[in-house]
Amino acid sequence: MNKNGVIPWMKQQWRGIVKVRLKWVKNRSLDHVIDKETDLKAASLLKDAINRSSTAFVTAKSVADWQKLLGLTVPVLRFLRRYPTLFHEFPHPRWPSLPCFRLTDTALLLHSQELAIHQAHQNDAVLRLSRLLMMTNTRALPLHSLHALRWDLGLPDSFDKTLVPQCPDDFRFVKSPNGVVSLRLSRWPEELAVSALQKSNECGTHYREFRRGQSALAFPMRFPRGYGAQKKVKAWMEEFQKLPYVSPYVDSSKIDPNSDLMEKRVVGVLHEVLSLTLHKKTKRNYLRGLREELNLPHKFTRIFTRYPGIFYLSLKCKTTTVTLREGYRSGKLVDPHPLARHRDKFYHVMQTGLLYRGDGSLKTSGEQFAASE
Question: How does residue 85 score in pLDDT terms, banded at 50, 70 and 90?
Fold first, then answer.
C-alpha cells in the first residue's frame, strides 16, 4: 500500500493476456505417488477408526460402505486383509462368521509414534489451520469441510476435540442458523499473513522490490516436456508472471472477477492451499467445497489444466487429485514434514507385510519392524 492508501495492483487489473490451450500430459512419477498414498491414507484412516472404537475393533459389516469414503478401488474387506501387519483378523465373539479386525502390535507402535509427532509439532498444525481460515471470507469453515482435509493438512484425528480446545486464543466454534458448526479464528494473526510464495522469495532483492510495489512475484514452473520451449506458451507465461501478485490473505472483493489479475489471484490462493498440505496435494472435490469461502469463480478448476507448469491434475484411483509440482522432485517431496516421513515408514510396513492374494503368503514379517524399534 502506498502513501495514498492505494494498493499498487488495484490500478492494474487487466492486460488482455492471450491464453493458450494446453493438452493434458500424464506424469507417471506423480501418478505413482498418488497411487501409493491413496492406500496409505485409507490404511491410516482405518487405523484411526479402530483406535477410536470403544471395542478396539471393527467388523467387516460396519466398514462395508466405506469404500468411496476411503477412496479405495477395492472392497474394504479385501483391503483390510491385504495388510495383516496392520490389521489382525479374528471371528466375532458372538457371530463367528462375521470377520473382525483389530490393530496389530506393529500398528499400535506406529500409532503411538504418530501421536508423539503430533504432540511435538502441534504448533505447526495450528499455523496451517490458522492460515487456511485466514484465506476465507468469514475467517471460518464448516467442520465437515475441515474433516475432509484433515489428513492432507496433517491434523490429528478428532482435532476438533483434541487440538482446538487447547487453543482458545486461536479458534472458537460457531453454529449457523441452519445448525452447521464451523471453526472460526478468534483473532487475526497478522504475522501469519505471509504466503509460501512470499516466504520463498524473502531473501532476494526481488522481494524487496515487490514489497515496495515495484515488481511482481513469479510462480515456480515445471512444464511437461516440450511445453516450456513453445513460443506461445513462453510468451503467455511471461505476461502472466508480470502481473502483480495478490496475496491470498488480502481482501480481493475490489478485483474485477473477469480480469487477468483475478485469475492470478486464484492461482495464488490454490497455490497457497496446496502449500499448506503435507503432501502438496489434495482432491479436487475438497477444493470445490471451499469455493465460496475462498472467493473462487464457479469454474476455477480450469486453472489446473491452464497452468500445467504450476499444477498437475491426476486421474488416478478413480478420482481427481491436484498436486503442486514444485513440491516434488523425482517423485519425492522436496521438503517433507516429520509426519510425512512417518507416513513413509507406515507405508513401508504396509508393503513389507503385503499379503499376496495368490498363495496367501507374506513378503516379510511385520514383527521384524516392531523388534527393530
Answer: very high
